[in-house]
Write a structure and sequence with these properties.
137 residues; mainly beta; 5-stranded antiparallel β-sheet; binds dTDP-4-keto-6-deoxyglucose
């Protein structure tokens, strides 16, 4: 799995609605240890601005939409999440920012590890050094 990429989920739809199943070892490439979700988000209040040392995650907008900025220390790209049929895989040592939340956005995140503040890299220069070391090694 690349360090950040969009994953298309199969949706099982019928006259009752849509159903998407997420399974460790199936469409989720890690064992899920934690799930969290964000609500009450606002378009002009971005979140994130950090990377993780070890954590892998998949973010899904189960309702609404938002825009991610993903930075591997060498280049930045953006990814919109607009449908619950798509997830955004984010590996470790990727700087992420979340912007432009729609008012109805519910952002759910599947995580490979339990919450650990020591895993966060919240300083951009520290992140750049770690990312540069990884690329040269
Ligand atoms: C990430 C992006 C996509 C907890 O106590 N447990 C948890 O599982 C999480 C995720 C957070 N927290 C606490 C830590 C902070 O005091 O909740 C507060 C808000 O967390 P933070 O400012 O890190 O939230 P975001 O939206 O900037 O980042 C979150 C995740 O923390 C992060 O891992 O990749 O969403």
């Amino acid at each position: 799995m690349l360090s950040a990429e969009t994953i298309e989920f199969q949706s099982i739809g019928d006259s009752r609605g849509e159903l998407v199943a997420l399974e460790s070892g199936g469409n989720v490439p890690f064992a899920i240890k934690r799930v969290y979700y964000m609500t009450g988000l606002s378009p002009d209040t971005p979140r994130g601005f950090h990377a993780h040392r070890k954590l892998e995650q998949i973010a899904v907008c189960v309702a609404g939409s938002c825009r991610f900025i993903l930075d591997n220390g060498r280049s930045r790209k953006q990814a919109w999440l607009r449908t619950p049929r798509q997830g955004l895989y984010i590996g470790n040592i990727i700087w992420r920012e979340m912007h432009d939340f729609s008012h109805d956005c519910v952002l759910m995140v599947l995580a490979s590890e339990l919450y650990d503040e020591a895993d966060y890299i919240r300083d951009y220069d520290t992140f750049r050094s770690l990312a540069a070391g990884r690329m040269s090694g």
